[in-house]
Amino acid sequence: MLQVGKKPTKNEKLLRVDTVYGMLCDGKARSDILRQSAELWDISERTCDSYIAEARVKLEEDCQLTRQAFMAEALAGYRSIRSQAERRGQLMVAKTTLDAMCSLVGLDGKTA
């Protein structure tokens, strides 16, 4: 039977849940998360399942963006890509990025 380590502090638990959150974002399977968590923190399957449940709640909260918030994030990402492309002289990449930005906000003349 797996020996259980000492109870973590509040901050340690938050860090563990954030680590499991990252594993979920990376597409890790439950079995992989269980194994890695046992290796990292010497915790039981039940404790790990609790961390997974908390991490999934955080994941759902992060995915509940409004359309405006999502567009703002997407446009910021496109701006960054376009700026980097222009600095490197990659004008076709910059133009393609600008086209994608126009399409995102509906300025491409196409109907959704």
| Amount of helix | over 70%
Report the radius of gyration as a whole number of Å: 21 Å
Order of helices and strands: HHHHH
What is the number of independent domains? 2
Largest β sheet strand count, sense and barrel closure: none
Give the number of helices: 5
Structural class by secondary-structure content: mainly alpha
**Overall residue-averaged pLDDT value:** 91
Q: What is the 3D form?
A: elongated
Residue stretches low in confidence (pLDDT < 50, at least 5 long) are none
- How many strand units? 0
Portion of residues in beta strands equals: under 5%
Distance between the termini: 57 Å
Short overview:
The chain is mostly helical and 112 residues long. Helix content is 73%, strand content 0%. It is built from five helices and no strands.
Structure description:
The chain folds into 2 domains: 10-63; 67-104. It has 5 helices and no strands. The protein has helices at residues 10-25, 30-41, 45-63, 67-87, 91-104. The chain is elongated.
Main traits of this protein?
single chain, 112 residues, mainly alpha, 2 domains, 5 helices
Topology:
Elements: H1 10-25, H2 30-41, H3 45-63, H4 67-87, H5 91-104
Helix pairs in contact: 1-3, 2-3, 4-5
